[in-house]
Design a protein that fits this description.
473 residues, Beta Polymerase, domain 2, Hydrophobic Seed Protein, two-stranded antiparallel sheet, 24 helices, 11% strand, elongated, binds adenosine-5'-triphosphate, binds magnesium ion
Length: 473
Protein backbone atom coordinates (compact mmCIF):
# COMPACT_ATOMS: atom_id res chain seq x y z
CA UNK A 1 0.00 0.00 0.00
CA UNK A 2 1.63 3.24 -1.14
CA UNK A 3 -0.24 5.32 1.44
CA UNK A 4 0.06 5.11 5.24
CA UNK A 5 -3.18 3.64 6.64
CA UNK A 6 -4.24 2.48 10.07
CA UNK A 7 -4.97 -1.22 10.71
CA UNK A 8 -8.65 -0.49 10.83
CA UNK A 9 -8.59 1.28 7.49
CA UNK A 10 -6.55 -1.51 5.92
CA UNK A 11 -9.12 -3.98 7.25
CA UNK A 12 -11.93 -2.07 5.50
CA UNK A 13 -9.97 -1.49 2.28
CA UNK A 14 -9.15 -5.19 2.12
CA UNK A 15 -12.84 -6.07 2.34
CA UNK A 16 -13.65 -3.77 -0.59
CA UNK A 17 -10.79 -5.33 -2.57
CA UNK A 18 -12.10 -8.83 -1.83
CA UNK A 19 -15.66 -7.92 -2.78
CA UNK A 20 -14.37 -6.33 -5.95
CA UNK A 21 -12.29 -9.40 -6.81
CA UNK A 22 -15.22 -11.73 -6.28
CA UNK A 23 -17.33 -9.64 -8.70
CA UNK A 24 -14.47 -9.48 -11.21
CA UNK A 25 -14.44 -5.66 -11.05
CA UNK A 26 -11.59 -3.19 -11.34
CA UNK A 27 -11.60 -0.90 -8.25
CA UNK A 28 -9.61 1.93 -6.73
CA UNK A 29 -9.43 4.10 -3.67
CA UNK A 30 -9.52 7.65 -4.99
CA UNK A 31 -9.65 11.36 -4.20
CA UNK A 32 -9.54 13.14 -0.85
CA UNK A 33 -8.66 10.05 1.21
CA UNK A 34 -5.55 9.28 -0.83
CA UNK A 35 -4.53 12.96 -0.88
CA UNK A 36 -5.03 13.44 2.86
CA UNK A 37 -3.20 10.23 3.78
CA UNK A 38 -0.20 11.34 1.75
CA UNK A 39 -0.34 14.72 3.50
CA UNK A 40 -0.66 13.14 6.93
CA UNK A 41 -4.03 14.84 7.48
CA UNK A 42 -6.94 13.32 9.34
CA UNK A 43 -9.54 11.45 7.27
CA UNK A 44 -13.03 10.35 8.13
CA UNK A 45 -14.32 9.07 4.83
CA UNK A 46 -12.98 7.21 1.83
CA UNK A 47 -14.14 7.09 -1.79
CA UNK A 48 -13.98 3.96 -3.92
CA UNK A 49 -14.44 3.94 -7.66
CA UNK A 50 -15.00 0.86 -9.78
CA UNK A 51 -15.38 0.22 -13.49
CA UNK A 52 -18.88 -1.25 -13.22
CA UNK A 53 -21.83 -1.28 -10.82
CA UNK A 54 -20.87 0.57 -7.63
CA UNK A 55 -24.08 -0.37 -5.83
CA UNK A 56 -23.32 -4.04 -6.39
CA UNK A 57 -19.79 -3.50 -5.07
CA UNK A 58 -21.15 -1.75 -1.97
CA UNK A 59 -23.61 -4.56 -1.27
CA UNK A 60 -20.95 -7.25 -1.73
CA UNK A 61 -18.63 -5.30 0.60
CA UNK A 62 -21.33 -4.92 3.23
CA UNK A 63 -21.93 -8.70 3.26
CA UNK A 64 -18.32 -9.23 4.35
CA UNK A 65 -18.98 -7.40 7.64
CA UNK A 66 -20.62 -8.91 10.69
CA UNK A 67 -23.13 -7.52 11.43
CA UNK A 68 -23.92 -6.50 7.87
CA UNK A 69 -24.15 -2.66 7.77
CA UNK A 70 -26.87 -0.80 5.91
CA UNK A 71 -26.12 0.30 2.34
CA UNK A 72 -27.67 3.60 1.24
CA UNK A 73 -27.72 4.01 -2.49
CA UNK A 74 -28.93 6.35 -5.23
CA UNK A 75 -30.03 4.31 -8.20
CA UNK A 76 -30.10 7.37 -10.48
CA UNK A 77 -26.50 8.29 -9.80
CA UNK A 78 -25.23 4.74 -9.40
CA UNK A 79 -23.61 5.66 -6.08
CA UNK A 80 -23.73 3.97 -2.68
CA UNK A 81 -22.68 4.76 0.84
CA UNK A 82 -22.00 2.78 4.00
CA UNK A 83 -21.51 4.28 7.45
CA UNK A 84 -19.42 1.85 9.44
CA UNK A 85 -20.03 1.51 13.16
CA UNK A 86 -17.06 3.65 14.18
CA UNK A 87 -18.19 6.62 12.07
CA UNK A 88 -15.94 5.76 9.12
CA UNK A 89 -17.88 6.62 5.94
CA UNK A 90 -17.22 4.76 2.73
CA UNK A 91 -18.61 5.88 -0.62
CA UNK A 92 -18.82 3.93 -3.86
CA UNK A 93 -19.13 5.34 -7.33
CA UNK A 94 -18.95 3.82 -10.79
CA UNK A 95 -16.17 5.21 -13.00
CA UNK A 96 -17.67 7.69 -15.43
CA UNK A 97 -17.09 9.91 -18.31
CA UNK A 98 -18.77 13.29 -18.30
CA UNK A 99 -19.72 15.95 -20.77
CA UNK A 100 -21.16 19.30 -19.73
CA UNK A 101 -23.83 21.65 -20.99
CA UNK A 102 -23.04 25.36 -20.86
CA UNK A 103 -25.75 26.53 -18.47
CA UNK A 104 -25.59 23.81 -15.89
CA UNK A 105 -23.18 21.98 -13.69
CA UNK A 106 -25.15 18.78 -14.18
CA UNK A 107 -23.16 16.74 -16.69
CA UNK A 108 -24.34 14.10 -19.12
CA UNK A 109 -22.80 10.96 -17.67
CA UNK A 110 -21.88 7.63 -19.18
CA UNK A 111 -19.90 4.72 -17.76
CA UNK A 112 -16.19 5.04 -18.38
CA UNK A 113 -12.78 3.71 -17.50
CA UNK A 114 -10.74 4.63 -14.44
CA UNK A 115 -8.72 6.96 -16.67
CA UNK A 116 -11.94 8.72 -17.78
CA UNK A 117 -12.86 9.06 -14.14
CA UNK A 118 -9.52 10.58 -13.22
CA UNK A 119 -9.90 13.03 -16.13
CA UNK A 120 -13.09 14.45 -14.63
CA UNK A 121 -11.54 15.09 -11.21
CA UNK A 122 -10.95 18.71 -10.31
CA UNK A 123 -7.26 18.83 -9.38
CA UNK A 124 -4.21 16.66 -9.93
CA UNK A 125 -3.91 16.09 -6.19
CA UNK A 126 -7.55 14.90 -6.09
CA UNK A 127 -7.11 12.47 -8.99
CA UNK A 128 -4.65 10.19 -7.18
CA UNK A 129 -5.87 6.60 -7.00
CA UNK A 130 -4.70 3.42 -5.27
CA UNK A 131 -5.29 0.15 -7.05
CA UNK A 132 -7.26 -2.55 -5.22
CA UNK A 133 -6.72 -5.05 -8.03
CA UNK A 134 -4.86 -8.30 -7.78
CA UNK A 135 -2.21 -7.42 -10.39
CA UNK A 136 -0.99 -4.21 -8.74
CA UNK A 137 -2.66 -4.03 -5.31
CA UNK A 138 -1.66 -0.94 -3.34
CA UNK A 139 0.00 0.78 -6.30
CA UNK A 140 -0.48 4.55 -6.74
CA UNK A 141 -2.05 5.45 -10.10
CA UNK A 142 -1.04 9.01 -10.86
CA UNK A 143 -1.57 10.03 -14.50
CA UNK A 144 -1.18 13.79 -13.89
CA UNK A 145 1.85 13.90 -11.61
CA UNK A 146 -0.38 14.70 -8.66
CA UNK A 147 2.23 13.37 -6.25
CA UNK A 148 4.72 15.91 -7.52
CA UNK A 149 2.14 18.70 -7.07
CA UNK A 150 1.39 17.43 -3.59
CA UNK A 151 5.05 17.69 -2.68
CA UNK A 152 5.43 21.11 -4.30
CA UNK A 153 2.14 22.23 -2.68
CA UNK A 154 0.44 23.16 -5.93
CA UNK A 155 -3.20 23.20 -7.01
CA UNK A 156 -3.49 22.43 -10.71
CA UNK A 157 -6.30 21.14 -12.93
CA UNK A 158 -5.58 17.89 -14.79
CA UNK A 159 -7.01 19.21 -18.08
CA UNK A 160 -7.32 22.74 -19.56
CA UNK A 161 -8.26 25.10 -16.67
CA UNK A 162 -10.92 27.17 -18.44
CA UNK A 163 -12.71 24.01 -19.61
CA UNK A 164 -12.49 22.46 -16.14
CA UNK A 165 -13.86 25.57 -14.42
CA UNK A 166 -16.44 26.32 -17.04
CA UNK A 167 -17.79 22.74 -16.83
CA UNK A 168 -18.28 23.07 -13.08
CA UNK A 169 -17.64 26.56 -11.69
CA UNK A 170 -17.81 25.29 -8.09
CA UNK A 171 -14.29 24.02 -8.75
CA UNK A 172 -13.04 27.62 -8.60
CA UNK A 173 -14.26 27.88 -5.03
CA UNK A 174 -12.74 24.47 -4.30
CA UNK A 175 -9.35 25.50 -5.72
CA UNK A 176 -9.25 28.50 -3.42
CA UNK A 177 -10.59 26.50 -0.50
CA UNK A 178 -7.83 23.87 -0.88
CA UNK A 179 -5.20 26.62 -1.24
CA UNK A 180 -6.40 28.13 2.04
CA UNK A 181 -6.96 24.83 3.88
CA UNK A 182 -3.69 23.21 2.85
CA UNK A 183 -1.50 26.29 2.42
CA UNK A 184 -0.95 25.44 -1.27
CA UNK A 185 -0.31 27.81 -4.18
CA UNK A 186 -2.55 27.86 -7.24
CA UNK A 187 -0.52 27.14 -10.39
CA UNK A 188 -0.36 30.10 -12.78
CA UNK A 189 -2.50 28.78 -15.66
CA UNK A 190 -5.03 27.41 -13.21
CA UNK A 191 -5.17 30.83 -11.54
CA UNK A 192 -5.61 32.59 -14.87
CA UNK A 193 -8.38 30.09 -15.65
CA UNK A 194 -10.21 31.10 -12.47
CA UNK A 195 -9.90 34.80 -13.27
CA UNK A 196 -11.20 34.23 -16.79
CA UNK A 197 -14.12 32.08 -15.68
CA UNK A 198 -15.15 33.85 -12.44
CA UNK A 199 -18.46 35.18 -13.79
CA UNK A 200 -19.74 31.63 -14.33
CA UNK A 201 -19.95 31.12 -10.57
CA UNK A 202 -23.49 32.50 -10.94
CA UNK A 203 -24.82 29.09 -12.10
CA UNK A 204 -23.84 27.50 -8.77
CA UNK A 205 -26.36 27.26 -5.93
CA UNK A 206 -25.85 29.56 -2.96
CA UNK A 207 -25.69 26.61 -0.54
CA UNK A 208 -22.66 25.09 -2.27
CA UNK A 209 -20.89 28.44 -2.57
CA UNK A 210 -21.49 29.18 1.10
CA UNK A 211 -20.29 25.70 2.06
CA UNK A 212 -16.93 26.43 0.45
CA UNK A 213 -16.86 29.96 1.88
CA UNK A 214 -17.32 28.52 5.37
CA UNK A 215 -14.49 26.06 4.80
CA UNK A 216 -12.27 28.96 3.74
CA UNK A 217 -13.24 30.91 6.86
CA UNK A 218 -12.46 27.83 8.96
CA UNK A 219 -9.03 27.30 7.39
CA UNK A 220 -5.90 27.92 9.48
CA UNK A 221 -5.21 31.33 7.90
CA UNK A 222 -8.47 32.43 6.28
CA UNK A 223 -6.97 35.60 4.77
CA UNK A 224 -5.24 33.39 2.20
CA UNK A 225 -8.53 32.18 0.74
CA UNK A 226 -10.43 35.45 1.11
CA UNK A 227 -7.67 37.41 -0.60
CA UNK A 228 -7.66 34.88 -3.46
CA UNK A 229 -11.44 35.21 -3.72
CA UNK A 230 -11.00 38.97 -3.88
CA UNK A 231 -8.22 38.98 -6.45
CA UNK A 232 -9.94 36.40 -8.67
CA UNK A 233 -13.09 38.53 -8.96
CA UNK A 234 -15.21 35.85 -7.27
CA UNK A 235 -15.76 37.80 -4.05
CA UNK A 236 -17.25 40.75 -5.96
CA UNK A 237 -19.92 38.37 -7.27
CA UNK A 238 -20.62 36.24 -4.19
CA UNK A 239 -20.15 38.78 -1.39
CA UNK A 240 -19.94 42.37 -2.73
CA UNK A 241 -20.31 44.05 0.68
CA UNK A 242 -16.95 42.67 1.67
CA UNK A 243 -15.26 44.01 -1.46
CA UNK A 244 -16.70 47.45 -0.68
CA UNK A 245 -14.37 47.50 2.34
CA UNK A 246 -11.32 47.58 0.08
CA UNK A 247 -9.27 50.68 -0.61
CA UNK A 248 -8.19 53.77 1.28
CA UNK A 249 -9.11 57.36 0.53
CA UNK A 250 -7.01 60.46 1.15
CA UNK A 251 -8.23 64.00 1.61
CA UNK A 252 -6.49 67.09 3.01
CA UNK A 253 -3.65 64.91 4.21
CA UNK A 254 -6.00 62.54 6.09
CA UNK A 255 -6.17 58.89 5.11
CA UNK A 256 -7.95 55.88 6.57
CA UNK A 257 -6.86 52.28 6.63
CA UNK A 258 -7.88 49.76 3.98
CA UNK A 259 -10.73 48.08 5.81
CA UNK A 260 -10.66 44.96 3.66
CA UNK A 261 -7.11 44.08 4.63
CA UNK A 262 -7.75 45.22 8.18
CA UNK A 263 -10.69 42.79 8.34
CA UNK A 264 -8.52 39.95 7.01
CA UNK A 265 -5.91 40.72 9.64
CA UNK A 266 -8.52 40.68 12.42
CA UNK A 267 -9.83 37.35 11.15
CA UNK A 268 -6.34 35.83 11.08
CA UNK A 269 -5.57 37.19 14.55
CA UNK A 270 -8.77 35.68 15.91
CA UNK A 271 -8.25 32.38 14.11
CA UNK A 272 -5.08 31.76 16.12
CA UNK A 273 -7.28 31.50 19.21
CA UNK A 274 -10.70 30.42 18.00
CA UNK A 275 -11.99 27.81 15.57
CA UNK A 276 -15.59 28.89 16.12
CA UNK A 277 -17.16 29.53 12.71
CA UNK A 278 -19.59 32.14 14.03
CA UNK A 279 -17.03 34.13 15.97
CA UNK A 280 -14.92 34.07 12.81
CA UNK A 281 -17.95 35.36 10.88
CA UNK A 282 -18.24 38.15 13.45
CA UNK A 283 -14.66 39.12 12.60
CA UNK A 284 -15.51 39.11 8.89
CA UNK A 285 -18.51 41.38 9.50
CA UNK A 286 -17.39 43.60 12.38
CA UNK A 287 -16.62 46.62 10.16
CA UNK A 288 -18.96 45.74 7.29
CA UNK A 289 -20.82 49.07 7.60
CA UNK A 290 -17.73 51.25 7.42
CA UNK A 291 -18.30 52.09 3.75
CA UNK A 292 -21.95 52.97 4.45
CA UNK A 293 -21.13 55.24 7.40
CA UNK A 294 -17.94 56.85 6.13
CA UNK A 295 -17.77 60.64 6.35
CA UNK A 296 -15.08 63.26 6.06
CA UNK A 297 -15.15 65.83 8.81
CA UNK A 298 -13.31 69.06 8.00
CA UNK A 299 -10.19 69.53 10.06
CA UNK A 300 -10.66 66.17 11.74
CA UNK A 301 -10.50 63.38 9.18
CA UNK A 302 -12.48 60.25 8.34
CA UNK A 303 -15.17 58.95 10.69
CA UNK A 304 -17.36 55.85 10.67
CA UNK A 305 -19.86 56.84 13.36
CA UNK A 306 -22.47 54.23 14.11
CA UNK A 307 -20.88 51.57 11.93
CA UNK A 308 -21.46 48.99 14.66
CA UNK A 309 -25.21 49.69 14.71
CA UNK A 310 -25.63 49.87 10.93
CA UNK A 311 -23.38 46.80 10.65
CA UNK A 312 -25.61 44.94 13.10
CA UNK A 313 -28.59 45.69 10.87
CA UNK A 314 -26.72 44.39 7.82
CA UNK A 315 -26.05 41.00 9.44
CA UNK A 316 -29.55 39.51 8.90
CA UNK A 317 -29.56 40.66 5.27
CA UNK A 318 -26.16 39.16 4.56
CA UNK A 319 -27.01 35.92 6.38
CA UNK A 320 -30.24 35.68 4.38
CA UNK A 321 -28.52 36.25 1.06
CA UNK A 322 -25.74 33.75 1.83
CA UNK A 323 -28.24 31.24 3.22
CA UNK A 324 -26.43 31.09 6.54
CA UNK A 325 -28.50 29.99 9.56
CA UNK A 326 -30.81 32.85 10.53
CA UNK A 327 -31.54 32.00 14.16
CA UNK A 328 -29.15 31.63 17.07
CA UNK A 329 -25.97 31.88 14.99
CA UNK A 330 -27.13 35.04 13.27
CA UNK A 331 -28.18 36.61 16.56
CA UNK A 332 -24.76 35.86 18.02
CA UNK A 333 -22.91 37.42 15.08
CA UNK A 334 -25.15 40.47 15.14
CA UNK A 335 -24.57 40.94 18.85
CA UNK A 336 -20.79 40.71 18.39
CA UNK A 337 -20.88 43.29 15.59
CA UNK A 338 -23.04 45.65 17.66
CA UNK A 339 -20.89 45.35 20.77
CA UNK A 340 -17.44 45.32 19.20
CA UNK A 341 -16.55 48.90 20.20
CA UNK A 342 -17.81 48.68 23.78
CA UNK A 343 -14.75 47.13 25.49
CA UNK A 344 -12.53 49.75 23.81
CA UNK A 345 -14.66 52.50 25.28
CA UNK A 346 -13.97 50.94 28.69
CA UNK A 347 -10.20 51.25 28.40
CA UNK A 348 -10.33 54.92 29.40
CA UNK A 349 -9.62 55.99 32.96
CA UNK A 350 -12.24 56.32 35.69
CA UNK A 351 -14.66 53.79 34.27
CA UNK A 352 -17.63 53.32 36.57
CA UNK A 353 -18.85 49.95 37.80
CA UNK A 354 -22.12 50.81 36.19
CA UNK A 355 -20.58 50.94 32.68
CA UNK A 356 -18.92 47.59 33.39
CA UNK A 357 -22.20 46.07 34.58
CA UNK A 358 -23.93 47.24 31.37
CA UNK A 359 -21.32 45.49 29.23
CA UNK A 360 -21.50 42.29 31.30
CA UNK A 361 -25.27 42.36 31.06
CA UNK A 362 -25.38 43.06 27.31
CA UNK A 363 -22.69 40.50 26.43
CA UNK A 364 -23.91 37.84 28.87
CA UNK A 365 -22.46 34.42 28.13
CA UNK A 366 -20.71 35.78 25.05
CA UNK A 367 -18.48 38.10 27.04
CA UNK A 368 -15.31 36.04 26.49
CA UNK A 369 -15.97 35.77 22.76
CA UNK A 370 -16.44 39.53 22.57
CA UNK A 371 -13.16 40.20 24.37
CA UNK A 372 -11.40 37.79 22.00
CA UNK A 373 -12.81 39.65 18.99
CA UNK A 374 -11.77 43.01 20.44
CA UNK A 375 -8.22 41.84 21.07
CA UNK A 376 -8.04 40.52 17.50
CA UNK A 377 -9.24 43.93 16.31
CA UNK A 378 -5.92 45.51 17.31
CA UNK A 379 -3.96 45.57 14.07
CA UNK A 380 -1.52 48.43 14.60
CA UNK A 381 1.96 47.78 13.22
CA UNK A 382 3.45 49.62 16.19
CA UNK A 383 4.42 46.87 18.67
CA UNK A 384 4.52 49.32 21.58
CA UNK A 385 0.95 50.39 20.85
CA UNK A 386 -0.29 46.82 20.51
CA UNK A 387 1.24 45.95 23.86
CA UNK A 388 -0.38 48.96 25.48
CA UNK A 389 -3.83 48.16 24.02
CA UNK A 390 -3.61 44.54 25.13
CA UNK A 391 -2.65 45.63 28.64
CA UNK A 392 -5.63 47.97 28.69
CA UNK A 393 -7.91 45.10 27.74
CA UNK A 394 -6.43 43.05 30.56
CA UNK A 395 -7.45 45.85 32.93
CA UNK A 396 -10.97 45.82 31.48
CA UNK A 397 -11.12 42.05 32.02
CA UNK A 398 -9.96 42.46 35.62
CA UNK A 399 -12.49 45.16 36.31
CA UNK A 400 -15.20 42.99 34.77
CA UNK A 401 -14.16 40.00 36.87
CA UNK A 402 -14.37 42.03 40.06
CA UNK A 403 -17.78 43.48 39.26
CA UNK A 404 -19.12 40.10 38.17
CA UNK A 405 -17.99 38.46 41.41
CA UNK A 406 -19.75 41.15 43.36
CA UNK A 407 -22.94 41.67 41.33
CA UNK A 408 -23.44 38.55 39.15
CA UNK A 409 -24.82 40.44 36.17
CA UNK A 410 -23.62 38.19 33.35
CA UNK A 411 -26.68 36.00 33.52
CA UNK A 412 -28.85 38.43 35.39
CA UNK A 413 -32.50 37.52 35.72
CA UNK A 414 -34.72 40.25 37.16
CA UNK A 415 -35.58 39.34 40.79
CA UNK A 416 -39.06 40.73 40.08
CA UNK A 417 -40.91 39.23 37.14
CA UNK A 418 -43.49 40.87 34.90
CA UNK A 419 -46.09 38.50 36.36
CA UNK A 420 -45.36 39.67 39.89
CA UNK A 421 -45.72 43.31 38.83
CA UNK A 422 -49.09 42.59 37.18
CA UNK A 423 -50.32 40.65 40.18
CA UNK A 424 -49.18 43.25 42.74
CA UNK A 425 -50.94 46.13 41.00
CA UNK A 426 -53.79 44.20 39.38
CA UNK A 427 -52.57 45.13 35.90
CA UNK A 428 -53.11 43.41 32.56
CA UNK A 429 -50.04 43.06 30.28
CA UNK A 430 -49.53 46.75 29.50
CA UNK A 431 -47.08 49.60 29.09
CA UNK A 432 -46.60 50.41 32.81
CA UNK A 433 -45.40 46.83 33.39
CA UNK A 434 -42.63 47.35 30.81
CA UNK A 435 -41.73 50.75 32.27
CA UNK A 436 -41.34 49.30 35.75
CA UNK A 437 -39.30 46.36 34.48
CA UNK A 438 -36.92 48.62 32.55
CA UNK A 439 -36.55 51.00 35.45
CA UNK A 440 -35.69 48.06 37.72
CA UNK A 441 -33.06 46.83 35.30
CA UNK A 442 -31.52 50.30 34.97
CA UNK A 443 -31.53 50.84 38.73
CA UNK A 444 -29.72 47.59 39.28
CA UNK A 445 -27.17 48.14 36.49
CA UNK A 446 -26.57 51.73 37.59
CA UNK A 447 -26.00 50.60 41.17
CA UNK A 448 -28.99 52.56 42.53
CA UNK A 449 -30.19 49.36 44.21
CA UNK A 450 -28.35 46.14 45.07
CA UNK A 451 -29.14 42.99 43.13
CA UNK A 452 -31.67 41.34 45.47
CA UNK A 453 -35.38 40.73 45.89
CA UNK A 454 -36.12 43.05 48.84
CA UNK A 455 -34.44 46.05 47.26
CA UNK A 456 -36.10 45.36 43.93
CA UNK A 457 -39.53 45.00 45.56
CA UNK A 458 -39.18 48.32 47.38
CA UNK A 459 -37.97 49.98 44.19
CA UNK A 460 -40.95 48.59 42.29
CA UNK A 461 -43.39 50.07 44.81
CA UNK A 462 -41.73 53.47 44.58
CA UNK A 463 -41.63 53.45 40.79
CA UNK A 464 -45.26 52.38 40.60
CA UNK A 465 -46.30 55.17 42.98
CA UNK A 466 -44.57 57.62 40.64
CA UNK A 467 -46.82 56.29 37.88
CA UNK A 468 -49.85 56.69 40.14
CA UNK A 469 -50.29 52.98 40.78
CA UNK A 470 -51.20 51.46 44.15
CA UNK A 471 -50.87 47.81 45.19
CA UNK A 472 -54.29 46.13 45.02
CA UNK A 473 -56.11 44.92 48.10
P1 LIG B 1 -13.09 17.33 1.51
O1 LIG B 1 -13.69 16.01 1.85
O2 LIG B 1 -12.09 17.87 2.44
O3 LIG B 1 -14.13 18.35 1.17
P2 LIG B 1 -12.43 16.10 -0.96
O4 LIG B 1 -11.40 16.34 -2.01
O5 LIG B 1 -12.49 14.74 -0.39
O6 LIG B 1 -12.24 17.17 0.16
P3 LIG B 1 -15.13 15.67 -1.73
O7 LIG B 1 -16.20 16.65 -2.01
O8 LIG B 1 -15.27 14.72 -0.58
O9 LIG B 1 -13.79 16.51 -1.59
O10 LIG B 1 -14.92 14.85 -3.06
C1 LIG B 1 -14.17 13.67 -3.16
C2 LIG B 1 -13.43 13.64 -4.48
O11 LIG B 1 -14.34 13.81 -5.56
C3 LIG B 1 -12.41 14.77 -4.65
O12 LIG B 1 -11.18 14.47 -4.08
C4 LIG B 1 -12.35 14.90 -6.15
O13 LIG B 1 -11.54 13.88 -6.71
C5 LIG B 1 -13.76 14.63 -6.57
N1 LIG B 1 -14.57 15.84 -6.69
C6 LIG B 1 -15.35 16.40 -5.75
N2 LIG B 1 -15.97 17.48 -6.20
C7 LIG B 1 -15.58 17.64 -7.47
C8 LIG B 1 -15.87 18.58 -8.51
N3 LIG B 1 -16.70 19.60 -8.29
N4 LIG B 1 -15.28 18.39 -9.71
C9 LIG B 1 -14.45 17.37 -9.93
N5 LIG B 1 -14.14 16.46 -9.02
C10 LIG B 1 -14.68 16.58 -7.79
MG1 LIG C 1 -13.98 13.96 1.04
Amino acid sequence: MQIPCSEKELFVIDKVARASGSLGLESYLIGGFVRDKLLGRETKDADFVCAGDAIELASATARLFDPVPRVDYFKNFGTAHIRLSDGFDIEFVGARKESYQRDSRKPAVEPGSIKDDQDRRDFTINALAISLNHADYGQLIDPFDGLKDLEAKIIRTPLAPVQTFSDDPLRMMRAIRFASQLGFAIEENTWQGIRDTASRISIISQERITDELNKIILSPKPSVGLDLLYRSGLLRIIFPQMVDLAGAEYKDGHGHKDNFYHTLQVLDNLSVYSADLWLRWAAVLHDIAKPATKKFEEGHGWTFHGHEVVGGRMVPKIFGKLKLPTHEEMRFVRKMVELHLRPISLTKENITDSAIRRLLFDAGDDFDSLMMLCEADITSKNKQKVKKYLENFQLVRQHCRKVEEKDHVRNWQPPISGELIMETFGLPPSKPVGIIKDALKDAMLDGVIPNNYEAAFAFMLAKAAELGLQPKG
